[in-house]
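Per reviewer request, we include the raw input and output of the structure prediction for the construct analysed in the revised manuscript.
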Amino acid sequence: MIVMTRYIHYISLIILLAGTLASCDNFLDRDPQDKLTNESYWIDETSLRTYAQDFYSSFFIGYDRDYTTFGGYFSGDNLTDDFLTLAGGTRVFPTSSTTGLNATTSTWSSPYGIIYKANVMIEKIADMNISAEAKEHWTGVARYFRAMAYSSLLKIYGGVPYIDRSIDPFKADDYALLYKDRDTYLYCAQQVLADYRYAIQYMRANDTKRQVNKYVAGAYMSRDMLYHATWLKYHGTNIGPGSQPVPDADLKDLFQGAVEGAETVMNSGNYAIGNTYNALFSTDDLAGNKEIIFYREYSATLQNATNALMSYNASENQDMGGVTENVIESYLCSDGLPIGQSPLYQGATDKRIAATFQNRDPRLYETVVDSLRILNSGLFPIAASPTGYPTKKFLNEEWYAAGNPYTTNRLSPADAPTIRYAEVLLNYVEARYEISRIGGSAFTQSDLDKSINLLRGRHLTKWGETPEVTRTMPTVMLNGANLSSNGVVIDDPERDVTVDAILWEIRRERRVELIMEGMRGADLKRWAKYEYLNSEMPDGSISKTFLGAYIKAADYPGIDISEKAVKLYNPADPTNLTASEGYIRYFTQTGIRVFTAGSLDSERYYLRSIPAGQITNYKDAGYTLTQNPGW
C-alpha cells in the first residue's frame, strides 16, 4: 500500500541512519535510536559524500549486470517502433489488471525513499559547520537527485504528491502530509525545474572522478525538462477528455529550462563530438572521452563488474527481439534525403538488404549488420535475429574477431554511457524549436549548426571495409519552414502530417542517433504518438513496426518458410501466408497492438494506474488519492 510502503521506507531509513551512520564509539555514547538521523553524523564533506553515494545506484544503471533487460538499452527499450520484442508483456499495452506493472509499488515507493533522503540531507546541511560554498554544492547535489526522483515519478504516473521536507512518521502533525493527494503535473514539473536551476548554479564543475557535477546535472536537466515540457504541450494538464491546454508562458519556462541545462554543458568547452559511434558503447574505458558526460564503469578484473550486453550482439541468437523495418527505413540516404525522396536509394527497385543498405547514413552500418541472419530459418545457428537484422551497436568487432571472451556470456567490461553529449545537443535543438513556436526567440541556422550538424559531421568508417572509406552526412540548412540538404528541400513522403517538417527531421535525427538507448519509448510517450506502435496501419496492412527485412526465399536455399519457422508478408499479396518473398513477419495474429488517439481506453496507456490497494488505503484513513483517468 502506498502510505504503508512510504512509511516502511522512512522506518528503514531511520534504522539505516541510526545504525550505519552512528558513531563508532561505545554503544552507550550513541544518540537515541528513535531520532530521524544521528546528529553526530553530519560533520563534514566526507559524511555528505558517503551519504550521497546511496543515490547513485538508483539512476546510473548502465547496462546493468548478467542477463537482464540491460538497463533500458537494446531489448530493454520497450514499447517502441524501433525494436520488436518477443515477450508478450512487452509487445502489448498494459491492461487494467491490478496485477503486473500496475500493481508494482516500487516504482512509487523507491523514488519517495530517495526524496526523503534528499530532504533530510538538505535540512541537515543548513546547520553544518562547513563553508558556504560546500553547503551550496551539497545542497545542489541533494536537489539534483530530488529532481531526478520526482522526474521518474512524473514519467510513470503524471502528477504526484510533492513533498519538499522530511516527514517524521512519529509526529502527528505530519500525518496529513503523509496522506497528501497528488499535485498537478505542471506544479511538480515547476518544482523539478527549480531544483535543477539551483543545481546547475551551485554544484561544482568538478568534484572528483565518477561524482556528479554541474555538467551532469545540466545534461539530465536538458533531458527531464524537455520531457516534462513536451508532455504538457502534447497531452495538456492530464490525459482524457478533462485535460486542458497548458498556458504557453508555463510551457515556455519549462522548455527554457531544457535549453539552460543543455547550454550549461555546451558552453563548458569540456565536450565535443568525435569521429566514433560504435566505440561509444563497446570500449572498456570511457574516461576522458569528450562525448561522454557520465557513465557506468565496468571492469574485467572485479567480481560481478561486467555485463552481458555484448554477447547479445555477438555470437548469441538475439531471440529477445530485433530491429524493425520501420526504423531501418527512417535512416537517411548519404545525400541527407529520406529514402522516399533520394535518387540514391536503391531499395525503390530492390527491397533486399544488399540494395537498401547502399548509400545510407553511416550510423546505420555501425548499428546493424549489413547482411541478414534470420532466426528459426534453419540456416543461421548463431547471431540470428527474428527480424533478420542482427544488431552490432554494442559489439566490439575487433574483440569478436579475435575471439575475446569479453564477447561471450556475461564477461564484457565495456563501459556504459548513461548520458552523452549527442543527446544534450538533440535535447537542445528540439527545445529551441519548440520554444520558438510559443513566443521564444526565432529558431535559426545557428541552432542547427551547434547541434544536428555536429552529429552529421562525424567522419565514420565501416569496420573491416577494404579499402577503408570515410563517410559523413551533409549539413542540414534552414530553408523557411523546411530544412534542406545540398540545396534540396527535404520533403519526406512518410512524414506524419500532424508534425511540421522541421520538427519531423529533428525527431528523426534523435531516433537514429539514440536508437536502442532507452529513449524512443519515452519520446513516443511525451509526444503523444503511441499510434506509431500499432501492429496494423489504418488501411489494414501490417505496420512495419511488426515487420523485419525483405527477403526472397530463392536467395536462401533450404530456408524453412512455414507457420513454425519464417513467415513472410508480401504487401502485393497480403493474404498469402506462404509467400515466397516479402518482409519477415514474426507474428501472424492481428490486433496485437491497437491504439486509437483520442479514445480514453487507449489514452490511459500513457500513464500507469495507481494500484487499487493504494487508493483503498487512503480511503480507509479518511483521505483521497486520485486515480488516473480511464483506470
